[in-house]
């Protein structure tokens, strides 16, 4: 009886398809790109500086912070470590050996979150997602995360199960993120009365630049401001519901969510956060994550591999 159950479970898992596709690979590359841009376009003095309640920087004294990549050398070598980290991120973006680079990716993301002074929250999202991606990357035997996987043909049931479990947990985590975001906003009067976006757009740190502010002033200073305010609330709750939606609805929500986050990037400067959320949305809302995306150009180093008979 137990053997029959195991066989039927294995058959179901194999029938579901492989999670090791270039779709999840694309999400990994986008996550790495976000961190890469943060490190590339910010100097050491910007990334490492005192914050409220923390005089030591990078903060390495307690707990898990001590394993940060930025804590393994004295502060005089931070620039060198930054360069090494950028090179590692380029390798991760390329898609080489997910089984090796998966843990490295999380280590870098964890280090950036805990050791640097960043503002837009993208580093937190990336640290969580790269941690949740560890099971699928450790089970991924491909040389490049862009190439076709042959786990089905090899009956790698445990590896495939690990991969799908990782994707399922990420989807639940992203859904909870949007649910929490929408519910938390209901506790602020500005979101209830529809004026919250006005205050964000005029914030001295995250707000619009003077030129754009002047252009959209007819909207920000009229009743129309309630549309993006309440629209954000509604869309974030609908994105939580996307966890249970059908394929067609998920595709619509995906487009709407990408649009929302790109507006955040353009208007509020939340670039690394928006890029990270694009990666999260790819795993969360693309229903056919088990199907290869057909790129128009096939790289030679990916096309020479012989199929398993």
UniProtKB/TrEMBL annotation:
Pfam families per the UniProt record, alphabetical: HTTM (PF05090)
Keyword Membrane listed: yes
Cellular component terms per the entry's GO annotation: endomembrane system
SMART domains: HTTM
Ranges where the HTTM-like domain occurs: 15-289
Keyword field: Membrane, Transmembrane, Transmembrane helix
Superkingdom field: Bacteria
Its membrane topology: Multi-pass membrane protein
PANTHER family according to UniProt: HTTM DOMAIN-CONTAINING PROTEIN, SPORULATION-DELAYING PROTEIN SDPB
Entry protein name: HTTM-like domain-containing protein
Organism of derivation: Virgibacillus dokdonensis
């Amino acid at each position: 009886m137990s053997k029959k159950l195991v066989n039927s479970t294995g058959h179901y898992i194999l029938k579901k398809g492989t999670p090791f596709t270039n779709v999840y690979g694309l999400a990994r590359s986008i996550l790495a790109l976000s961190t890469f841009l943060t490190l590339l376009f910010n100097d050491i003095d910007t990334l490492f500086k005192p914050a409220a309640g923390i005089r030591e920087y990078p903060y390495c004294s307690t707990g898990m912070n001590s394993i940060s990549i930025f804590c393994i050398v004295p502060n005089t070598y931070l620039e060198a470590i930054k360069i090494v980290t950028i090179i590692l991120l380029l390798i991760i973006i390329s898609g080489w050996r997910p089984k090796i680079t998966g843990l490295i990716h999380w280590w870098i993301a964890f280090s950036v979150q805990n050791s640097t002074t960043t503002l837009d929250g993208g580093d937190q999202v990336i640290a969580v997602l790269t941690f949740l991606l560890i099971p699928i990357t450790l089970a991924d035997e491909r040389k490049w995360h862009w190439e076709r996987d042959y786990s089905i043909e090899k009956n790698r049931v445990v590896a495939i199960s690990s991969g799908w479990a990782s994707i399922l947990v990420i989807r639940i985590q992203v859904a909870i993120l949007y649910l929490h975001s929408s519910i938390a906003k209901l506790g602020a009067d500005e979101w209830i009365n529809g004026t919250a976006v006005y205050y964000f757009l005029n914030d001295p740190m995250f707000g619009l630049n003077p030129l754009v502010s002047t252009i959209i002033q007819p909207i920000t200073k009229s009743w129309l401001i309630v549309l993006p305010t309440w629209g954000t609330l509604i869309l974030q709750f609908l994105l939580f519901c996307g966890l249970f939606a059908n394929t067609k609805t998920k595709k619509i929500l995906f487009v709407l969510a990408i649009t929302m986050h790109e507006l955040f990037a353009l208007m509020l400067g939340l670039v690394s956060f928006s890029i990270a959320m694009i990666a999260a949305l790819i795993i969360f809302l693309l229903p056919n994550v088990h199907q290869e995306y057909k790129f128009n150009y096939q790289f030679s180093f990916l096309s020479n591999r012989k199929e398993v008979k």
